[in-house]
Amino acid sequence: MSDPVVNLSKSGPVGHITLNRPPANSYEIGFMRDLDAVIEEAIWDPDVKVVILKSALEKFFSAGADIKAFTANDTAANLEMIRFAHGALEKMANSAKVFIAAINAHALGGGLEMALACDLRFAAEGSYRLGLPEVTLGLLPGNGGTQRLPRLIGANKALEMMISGEPVGPEEALHLGIVNKLFPPDKLIEETGVYAKKLAAGATVAVGQIKRAVYQGISMDLSDALALERELIEPLFDSEDVKEGLAAFAEKRPPVYKGQPLGSTLSEDT
Fold first, then answer.
1. Where in the sequence numbering do the catalytic residues fall?
2. Banded pLDDT at 2 (limits 50, 70, 90)
3. Number of Cβ within a 10 Å radius of residue 148
4. 168-196 as b/e, with b when 16 or more CB fall inside 10 Å?
5. Could you give the CA distance from residue 8 to residue 99 in angstroms, rounded to a whole number?
């Protein structure tokens, strides 16, 4: 039996979602169904606190949609895949858990869109490219790129990238704010894992609420966003993590967080 094209492994509290569909991690609806199932598994696993999305391939994080599959499909089938992909990627954004894309090589089209759906993007130094070249095929970025990239780097530069289809290198991606950190290629996964483990050992309930406050509040007016902030901080006051954090501060020791709320359950959105 062949290895799955998407799989989940765990290293302590960190989940690793690995894309492995040679030669370029190009996806069609079968790939997206596998990715969706693995995302669900990571979200609902109570032992997983932070998730890293990475590629097993040397030259590609992902080249995006499988053009042969797109060509063979009719419009209805292509729209079905896009709707399914939207749903799968939105689960990462809606989860209280932090998802980090570890970009080691070319991330183009839907490949970059998968990374954009993560909360953070760490990348390797190198000469590979990141971009949304769909316009060169007469299409638009259809897996969230037209919405996530402008929210990340501003409408002006995002529009320029999408209407030209021109990709950028990792250094420029860092400058623009597409990626958060750059590491030497041989250190990318190690350093991303170190960051993820540190985050997983922290107050993950609070992290999840911060994530929700930012993502939901950014589209609200300030008054409604502040009301959301009050709503999200309220259950934290009764959480085990807050009690531990305050006690550790008073006792001048490092806190030992459990990542479990006290007196209420902060449910995962799916």
1. 113, 134
2. low
3. 20
4. bbbeebbebebbeebbeeeebbebbbebb
5. 13
